[in-house]
Amino acid sequence: MHSDLSAHLHTPECNQLIDLLKNCHEENKFAKFIGVCNTIDQQVVNCLRGERRERSRVNRQQAAEKQRRVQERMKQFEQQEPKSN
Fold it and tell me: What DSSP letter does each residue of 25-85 carry, written as one string?
């Protein structure tokens, strides 16, 4: 089972493969069940996996940057506030 295959969610390369897969399924109503479209399906899976990995990489970078900014603000806050014991 694939994730949502809506065109606005994917890159043009993956959309092209998704269209090929949909066409293969339409043209091979019964043969699709015995693996006629498996090659295209595997290409779609690989493309979707690549997209997911890229999103994860970007999210990790953004999270690291956000964490860095939070740490800087915490240091500034600690320097500004006098310690009272």
Answer: HHH-TTGGGGTTTHHHHHHHHHHHHHHHHHHHHHHHHHHHHHHHHHHHHHHHHHHHSPP--
